[in-house]
């Protein structure tokens, strides 16, 4: 049964990037450990703590059938060079289509993107990799789970994971907790 | 050795109260369990999960020698009726002194309040119970630890635990994690 899962690395004060889209303070845990987690991209292998490796492995072993993101992260990563590290098809929510789509599919309506992603994913899960789309899916009741990889830092300012929520409170389950190094992975179901 | 510790219940999106100072969504874990934790106030006993009881007990068994708060929470609680549940002396940071001080000490300068609290606490720890003072102590390098009792809810708006930080990033240790019911207690040291 497909679950729609939003997952991001977040500072303790709620930011998933700094004011300049910087993520250096938040992504250190991807490279601070002794366990190699290969990705779908040949030259990209994460080196994480054993606990984080257990947390990451399913996503990099085929559990995710589609990834939905916004145009901002797509442009920032240059469309992941045509291949997302997870190795699944990418669905981008954007008002316009770029000259080079890097193999991704583009939609103006986030719910149409979700519908197409569901068809692609089959029984596998769908990852949501952008805060604004997470917020829209939350408001539309389309999100099943939230994974916060909580990083022990206060950034003070930047881009928030959760912002502009129209329908609150959103109540969650108690989390499954995985204690990594430089990160605490918290997996919540939306109830 | 005294530690200055800021501790609050916080939603996953960073709020310690809603827009109207409401805390109903955040304080449920104080009453959802089978273990009684008595407080210094005769009629006030918490009923929490076994894990939360372990987390709470030291504070209610004399580990905290002084508590620092702002005028807002002091007024909202009516000065805790003259006795804080922790049972320790209360130091209030405020621009003015109310007619009824409820036995608390008042200071205009947060660092003077801290100095007085240190004298009172001796070797015991000092609790900081207000976000703005937490922020000021963080900026002044006077905070040793942050305890976030993370509640599985998104509030969308309200009063944030961490806001207006002048000096960032603030790097923290990996947390000690205690998994309660309706709350995850995360204890970070500031490094």
TrEMBL record, chains A, B:
InterPro entries: DHFR-like_dom_sf (IPR024072), RibDG_C (IPR002734). One of its GO terms (molecular function) is 5-amino-6-(5-phosphoribosylamino)uracil reductase activity. Transmembrane segments: none annotated. Pfam families: RibD_C. GO terms for biological process: riboflavin biosynthetic process. Residues 3-171 form the Bacterial bifunctional deaminase-reductase C-terminal domain. Signal peptide: none annotated. This is Deaminase. It comes from Paractinoplanes toevensis.
């Amino acid at each position: 049964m497909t679950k729609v899962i939003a997952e991001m690395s977040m500072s303790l004060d709620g930011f998933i990037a700094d004011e300049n889209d910087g993520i250096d303070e938040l992504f250190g845990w991807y490279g601070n450990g002794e366990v190699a987690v290969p990705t779908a991209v040949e030259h990209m292998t994460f080196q994480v703590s054993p606990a984080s490796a257990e947390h990451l492995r399913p996503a990099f072993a085929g559990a995710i059938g589609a990834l939905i993101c916004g145009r901002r992260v797509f442009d920032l990563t240059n469309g992941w060079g045509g291949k997302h590290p997870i190795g699944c098809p990418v669905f981008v929510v954007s008002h316009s289509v770029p000259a080079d789509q890097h193999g991704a599919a583009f939609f103006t309506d986030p719910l149409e993107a979700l519908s197409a992603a569901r068809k692609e994913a089959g029984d596998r899960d769908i990852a949501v990799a952008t805060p604004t789309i997470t917020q829209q899916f939350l408001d539309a009741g389309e999100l099943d789970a939230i994974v916060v990889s909580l990083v022990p830092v206060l950034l003070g300012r930047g881009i928030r994971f959760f912002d502009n929520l129209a329908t609150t409170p959103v109540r969650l389950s108690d989390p499954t907790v995985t204690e990594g190094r430089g990160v605490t992975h918290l997996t919540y179901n939306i109830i």
